[in-house]
Design a protein that fits this description.
Chain B: This is Hydrogenase maturation protein HypD. The complex is a heterodimer. Chain A is mainly beta. Chain A has 1 helix and 5 strands. Classes of the chains: A mainly beta, B alpha/beta. Bound molecules: iron/sulfur cluster (SF4).
C-alpha cells in the first residue's frame, strides 16, 4: 500500500476523509476497499484495525463475524466487507 | 503488507506480461472492458497498457458511481442540503460533484451545513449528537458501499434515531453490464469483473454474461499482477473459444458472496423499477430504494424533492465512452471544454471516471513530452 497510497493521497488530500479515515485516496463509492489487519476485537461488532501505513481505526465487523486478531479484512466506508482467505487463494 | 507487496513484484509482473505476449494470436484484436473504476485507476496509475501488446485494447466501463449519477439527483440532494434544519453529509468525492447551482462544497461556502463523512455510520452518530437537527446522508455507490448504508439504517431503526435519513442513489452493477451488452454498438470480447463489488455479490451472478452472451469474465484484484493475471486468463479463454466466469481474486471473493451483507441488503432495500444513469440513460431494475418499512428514514419521503431532470450537453460523448465505443480523448470536448477542473460530462467528475483517469495519467505525460 505504501507507494500507491502516497501517490494517491498527495494528489487529492481533500478526499482522505476525517481523522480516522483509512482510505489511501478516493473515499467514495469506487469499487476499491482498503486492506487492514485486525489488532483487537471490541464489543458491539467492532474491531480495531491498522492499514499498511500504520493508520488505525475502529471498523464495523457485522458482515465478517468470523474475523479474528491477525486477519486481513477489506474495509469499505467504515465497514469490513470481506476477510482474506488464504485457502481460497 | 502481505497480499499487497507480492502483487507488485516487478519480476512476476514482467513474467506475466511476457506470457501474455507469448500466448496472444498476432492477427487478432482483443477488446477487454474493465467494468470497475478502481481498475481503470490502477491501469493508469501503474501504466499497465504499456506492458501489453498493441492488439490488446483496454476499454473503460461504467463502474464509477459518482460519474453515472445524473445531475438532477445531485440537484435534488442539494435542495435538501439548503434547508436550514438539515446537516447534509456525503463522502469526499461527492463534495466536488456539480449540480446546476454548484457543488456541495460551494453550497457550504454559501452557508449550508454540509459535512464530509467517511462512513454512513459517522452520519448516524452525528444525528445522535445533534437531536435538534435533521441529518441526511447522501448515499451513493454499487454493492460495495450499499452494505454500509444498510447496516447504518438497521442501526438507526434499532436505536430509534428519528432525525436521520438517507437520500439513496445506490446502483447495481449487473444491469449496467447487461445494458452495455445489449447496446447495438457493443464490441467487447471479454470483461474484467469488479473485485470488491464481487466480495459482496460473489462470482456466480456474472454467469449470465458467459451463458447468454458468450463472453468470458474474470473477477480481478487491483494490484498490477492481479490485473495482468486476469488479462492472461481472458486471453486464454478467448483463444480456446471458452466463455466462463473465472475468479482471479479468490483470496477475497467467495463464489457466493458475503451472506450477512446480502441479507442486510435484502432487508433494507428494494429494487427500483428503473433509474437514470448519466451517459447510459434509463436502465430498468438498476438501482435501490429503501423498503417501505424504512420509509421513516427515507429522505425522499421525509423532504419533498423537486425531482429535477437535467440533460448533458449534446456534444458530450460520455455514453459512447462508457460503452467502450470511443476512447476518452476522441470525445470532441476532451481536454478543451471538459477538464477535471470544469467537468462537462460525467466521466470527468471523479478521479475514477475514464476521462479524468485518462486526463491525469496520459494527458499529463503527453504535454510533459511536448
Ligand atoms: S471528455 Fe467530458 S464530455 Fe467527453 S466523454 Fe469525457 S466526460 Fe463526457
Amino acid at each position: 500500500m505504501s507507494e500507491g497510497a502516497k501517490e494517491g493521497s498527495s494528489k487529492a488530500p481533500s478526499q482522505v476523509g476525517e481523522s480516522h479515515s483509512l482510505a489511501p485516496r478516493c473515499v467514495t463509492c469506487q469499487d476499491e476497499a482498503v486492506p487492514v489487519t485486525v489488532l483487537e476485537l471490541h464489543a458491539d461488532a467492532q474491531a480495531l484495525v491498522e492499514n499498511g501505513s500504520g493508520q488505525r481505526a475502529l471498523v464495523a465487523i457485522d458482515f465478517t463475524p468470523e474475523a479474528r486478531v491477525g486477519d486481513i479484512l477489506l474495509v469499505h466506508s467504515g465497514v469490513a466487507i470481506a476477510r482474506l482467505d488464504e485457502e481460497r487463494s | 503488507m502481505k497480499y499487497v507487496d507480492e502483487f507488485r513484484d516487478p519480476a512476476l509482473i514482467r513474467k506475466t506480461a511476457d506470457e501474455i505476449a507469448r500466448v496472444i494470436e498476432r492477427d487478432r484484436h482483443y477488446r477487454i472492458m474493465e467494468v470497475c473504476g478502481g481498475h481503470t485507476f490502477s491501469i493508469y496509475r501503474f501504466g499497465l497498457q504499456r506492458l501489453l501488446p498493441e492488439n490488446i485494447e483496454l476499454v473503460h466501463g461504467p463502474g464509477c458511481p459518482v460519474c453515472v449519477l445524473p445531475m438532477g439527483r445531485m440537484d435534488d440532494g442539494l435542495a435538501i442540503a439548503a434547508r436550514p434544519e438539515v446537516i447534509f453529509t456525503a463522502f469526499g468525492d461527492v463534495m466536488r460533484v456539480p449540480g446546476r447551482r454548484g457543488t456541495p462544497l460551494e453550497m457550504r461556502a454559501k452557508g449550508a451545513d454540509v459535512r464530509m463523512v467517511y462512513s454512513p455510520l459517522d452520519a448516524l452518530k452525528l444525528a445522535t449528537e445533534n437531536p435538534d437537527r435533521q441529518v441526511v446522508f447522501f448515499a451513493i455507490g454499487f454493492e460495495t458501499t450499499a452494505p454500509s448504508t444498510a447496516l447504518t439504517l438497521l442501526r438507526a431503526r434499532s436505536l430509534n434515531v428519528d432525525n436521520f435519513s438517507v437520500f439513496c442513489n445506490h446502483v447495481l452493477i449487473l444491469p449496467a453490464i447487461r445494458a452495455i451488452l445489449d447496446s447495438p454498438d457493443m464490441r467487447i470480447d471479454g470483461f474484467i469483473g469488479p473485485g470488491h463489488v464481487s466480495t459482496v455479490i460473489g462470482a456466480r451472478p456474472y454467469e449470465f454474461i458467459a451463458r447468454e452472451y458468450g463472453k468470458p469474465v474474470v473477477i480481478s484484484g487491483f494490484e498490477p499482477l492481479d490485473l495482468l493475471q486476469s488479462i492472461l486468463m481472458l486471453i486464454k479463454q478467448l483463444n480456446q473459444g471458452r466463455a466462463e466466469v473465472e475468479n482471479q481474486y479468490a483470496r477475497v471473493v467467495p463464489w457466493d458472496g458475503n451472506r450477512p451483507a446480502l441479507r442486510a441488503l435484502a432487508e433494507v432495500f428494494a429494487v427500483r423499477p428503473f433509474f437514470e444513469w448519466r451517459g447510459l440513460g434509463f436502465i430498468s431494475q438498476s438501482a435501490l430504494r429503501l423498503r417501505d418499512e424504512f420509509a421513516a428514514w427515507d429522505a425522499e419521503t421525509r423532504f419533498s424533492v423537486p425531482g429535477v431532470r437535467v440533460t448533458d450537453p449534446k456534444a458530450a460523448q460520455c455514453g459512447e465512452v462508457l460503452k467502450g465505443v470511443l476512447p476518452p480523448n476522441r470525445c470532441k470536448l476532451f481536454g478543451r471544454e471538459c477538464t477535471p477542473e470544469h467537468p462537462v460530462g460525467a466521466l470527468m467528475v471523479s478521479s475514477e471516471g475514464a476521462c479524468a483517469a485518462y486526463y491525469h495519467y496520459v494527458h499529463a505525460m503527453v504535454t510533459a513530452g511536448d
